[in-house]
Amino acid sequence: MPGKYINPYSDFGFKRIFGQEANKDILIAFLNSLLPQHHQVKDLTFLNTERVRDHFALHSPLLDLYCVSPSGERFIVEMQKKHQTFFMDRSVYYTACAIREQVKRGAQDFDLAAVYFIGIMDFVHHINGVPPQLLHEVSLKDQDGRQVYDKLHMYFLQMPLFKKTEAELETPLDKWLFFLQNLPSLNRIPEVLGEPVFKKAFETAEGSLMSFPEWLESEFSEDALIMARKELEDARIEGKVMGLAEGLAEGKAEGLAEGLAEGLAEGRAKANLENARKMQAAGISADVIFQVTGIRLT
Fold it and tell me: Which end of the chain is more exposed for a tag (fewer CB within 10 A), N or C?
């Protein structure tokens, strides 16, 4: 049975809570729970989707939020649902583009504003062999671990590793991670999250306050999230089955593994197409359908 609140891991849920101009105080509070004291944010301007596409030359709308502070600092926030082998590479590319856009052609002044990338990951990822941990903070340091450049920071939050209970929450970051991790299953605002900014976040996430088109988009976005998680689990199963086949000498086992892998892939494709057709029948725009399912219906 659906909960009282929308899922912040879905595209719709994340952008509704954190990506609206009226709710930028919610995003600011979340960012400030991560950022150092000397880069605390007081105000933000959301850069619209068209500008983001122009600057980042994206072939698909992968970037969730891109913001700039009055003093020029850039903030890139991405909710990543599917495991990606080259997620670090893509994150570096995004930050590089945010740096590059600050320098006008022919300019000699390279006084850059800071760039922050925040990746909220709905999976556990081994970053270049580094043992997985809840928060990886990445910056430019020398061979002795000293900070040599303070204008480029990347934060990777591996949400499955967050295990704190309501009674164990201590820091503002703890509270935001608990909010993200548990929102879909909550039916009340926990006492520890009684601050005004959290109350506003809960109110924004309440399904009963949405219009019917918003509710419909939320449902399809939630379906896409479920499919993304299922694809990850199916990929794990495929890997195990294929590994078993490789370890057996008989060709029959390998054929069985390949058949299972093909069947899983075919099932995912059919489910995706069915969701796309349902969205089209409900009057959802072709662009939104493509964002959610990856299918462009004619």
Answer: N
